[in-house]
């Protein structure tokens, strides 16, 4: 008998997340749309993270728990991609949670209508506000990242772009976003809806990614030139750098 593929694979990288993981999982299990799997990608936590994850195994939805040594958050996310069976992938932080119980239903409906490769919405956070960040454009993505907690990816995206680049310790998702955003083979759509609560104080907010900052201009230029003139790309870079300095 042919295996039934879940529509969504929800990948949660964890490390010593015992204080927040249950809320993240509860927000998924309470969804009205139920064609999903949950993959807990744990980096050998030393607290009760794995035990908490295992306490949800008796629920009706498939939950996989893999606890193994990894090279950080993005390595865990990459490992999740390799194991995921869903049509669309979503990455939720262990200290984040879906904002209400119809998120997956609403996203599913939009994807059925549009068949887009990437759909993204907004996140709510104490520091970013109630609707970060709105619709992205060719200039904005240079100096603002689309939060991964607001993005759903068709599984083929990672066949076209490759996995998250581990040389970027805290902004591999931003580098990946720049890649797919300018890829002519990948369609994307903004959906004006809050997807998740994005927690402040995580690893990316506490750690500078110097390699990403070093590579940003060339990375952006090489991708943005796919659909913009050289003059427009340079203008966007200049405007983006000014926005960073003055904000």
TrEMBL record:
Pfam families: Glycos_transf_2
Domain Glycosyltransferase 2-like, chain residue ranges per copy: 9-138
Organism: Nonlabens arenilitoris
Protein name: Glycosyltransferase 2-like domain-containing protein
GO molecular function: hexosyltransferase activity
Matches recorded under InterPro entries: Glyco_trans_2-like (IPR001173), Nucleotide-diphossugar_trans (IPR029044)
Positions of transmembrane segments: none
